[in-house]
């Protein structure tokens, strides 16, 4: 039996699983919204005190669950929010002192590798080249791959929380803010756009986070079906319409959108703008949501 803890910028995740008859099985999962990068901390490179305490509290809850399952093997990883914070090492040390959980801070390349493994475990990859995108709070990973191998991968400091802090200046977001964001993305993603032309992936696979929210907004009246579907392919025009609806909305309007959880009310705006930019700059028409991502990649890895 193995426990995996994914310490993200917005949410902390716990998965407990085991291998039975050669197949991996998830026994327990829990997600806690922590917002580790709130209060402008993600842009300043620090975890503010309230977020710091929420993080410690969440990991205490996770440790209690792990002890209930009597799990001996724990793999805990932290990504951009801890990686980039000047008090990130203090946080890691406090977690170990309080809960005896050792946290590994992984770099963006490692993060992308585990995200690929998660998507592969979901059996969504084929011979067709895919662009896998994982929009986190602090970083976004882009991976071009098929079911056999990764052709290219990169991690960019354009997570939803970071973009929200840097570019969301009015409600609803203004044309000027969108222009400035797109200009920033054009500069940051210059190499990706060149690599795209080389490999020409034909399907976009969005993993976890915002793409789970997109799926749940589509299937809000079929809640059970939404939660049970690991992979879900959107109708292209309906997906683009949803992006436009989100981008034009106010915070208050998003609060009342069915299927959208409170944690993602503002993050989904920046995710929508980022996805719209990528779709506009490529010729990708097929869009798939995949629930499996980093945490499942960690769980199903042999390391």
Automatic annotation (TrEMBL):
InterPro entries: ATPase_NBD, GppA/Ppx_hydrolase, Ppx_GppA_N
A Pfam family of this chain: Ppx-GppA
CDD domains for the chain: ASKHA_NBD_ChPPX-like
Ranges for domain Ppx/GppA phosphatase N-terminal: 16-302
GO molecular function: pyrophosphatase activity
Superkingdom to which the source organism belongs: Bacteria
PANTHER family, per the entry: EXOPOLYPHOSPHATASE (PTHR30005), RETROGRADE REGULATION PROTEIN 2 (PTHR30005:SF0)
Protein name: Ppx/GppA phosphatase
């Amino acid at each position: 039996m193995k426990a995996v803890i994914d310490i993200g910028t917005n949410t902390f995740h716990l998965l407990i699983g085991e291998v039975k008859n050669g197949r991996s099985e998830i026994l327990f999962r829990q997600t806690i919204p922590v917002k580790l990068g709130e209060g402008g901390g993600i842009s300043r490179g620090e975890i503010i005190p309230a977020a710091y305490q929420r993080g410690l509290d969440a990991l205490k809850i996770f440790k209690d669950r792990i002890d209930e399952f009597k799990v001996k093997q724990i793999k805990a990883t932290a990504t951009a929010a801890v990686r980039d914070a000047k008090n990130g090492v203090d946080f890691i040390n406090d977690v170990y002192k309080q809960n005896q959980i050792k946290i590994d801070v992984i770099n963006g390349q490692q993060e992308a590798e585990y995200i690929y493994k998660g998507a592969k475990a979901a059996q969504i990859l084929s011979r067709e080249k895919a662009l896998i995108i994982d929009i986190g709070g602090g970083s976004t990973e882009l991976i071009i791959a098929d079911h056999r191998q990764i052709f290219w991968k990169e991690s960019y400091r354009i997570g939803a929380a970071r973009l929200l802090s840097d570019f969301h200046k009015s409600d609803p977001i203004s044309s000027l803010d969108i222009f400035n964001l797109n200009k920033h993305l054009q500069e940051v993603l210059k190499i990706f756009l060149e690599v795209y032309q080389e490999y020409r992936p034909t399907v976009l696979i969005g993993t976890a986070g915002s793409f789970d929210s997109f799926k749940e907004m589509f299937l809000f009246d079929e809640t059970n079906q939404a939660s049970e579907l690991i992979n879900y392919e959107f109708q292209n025009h309906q997906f683009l319409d949803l992006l436009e609806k989100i981008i034009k909305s106010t915070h208050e309007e998003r609060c009342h959108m069915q299927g959208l959880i409170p944690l993602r009310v503002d993050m989904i705006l920046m995710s929508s703008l980022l996805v719209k930019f990528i779709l506009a700059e490529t010729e990708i028409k097929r869009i798939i949501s995949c629930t499996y991502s980093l945490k499942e990649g960690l769980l199903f890895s042999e390391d």
